[in-house]
Amino acid sequence: MRIEENRARGGRPRVEGATSLFYDHTSSPRYNWLLPGWVVEERTMPTGRVYRIYYDPFGRAYATKSEVILAWEQAGLHVVNP
């Protein structure tokens, strides 16, 4: 729900023909490195380009896996092998 609230406040405009799918650590082997409560949105553009946006449990968005890992480290988590 927080993700949708953030979008409504002024995220990027939706691209006609684009699709969005959400995954967590249990829904795809590709994202089993995510911590519980974190999700990733895959936005596929009509051109086939895929954008990934990672969301923490509070709805804050991160553009890359590196940003997610940095946020975890800054929170005091020890990342071994994501």
UniProtKB/TrEMBL annotation:
> Which GO molecular function annotation, any one, does this entry have?
DNA binding
Q: What is its main location?
A: nucleus
Question: What's an example GO cellular component term for this entry?
Answer: nucleus
Ubl conjugation recorded as keyword? no
In the UniProt record, does the keyword Transcription occur? Answer: yes
Alphabetically sorted, this entry's keywords are: DNA-binding, Nucleus, Transcription, Transcription regulation
| Domain (MBD) ranges | 25-69
**What Pfam families does the record point to?**
MBD (PF01429)
Localization annotation: Nucleus
Q: Which InterPro entries match?
A: DNA-bd_dom_sf, Methyl_CpG_DNA-bd
Q: What is this protein called?
A: MBD domain-containing protein
Q: Which organism is it from?
A: Linum trigynum
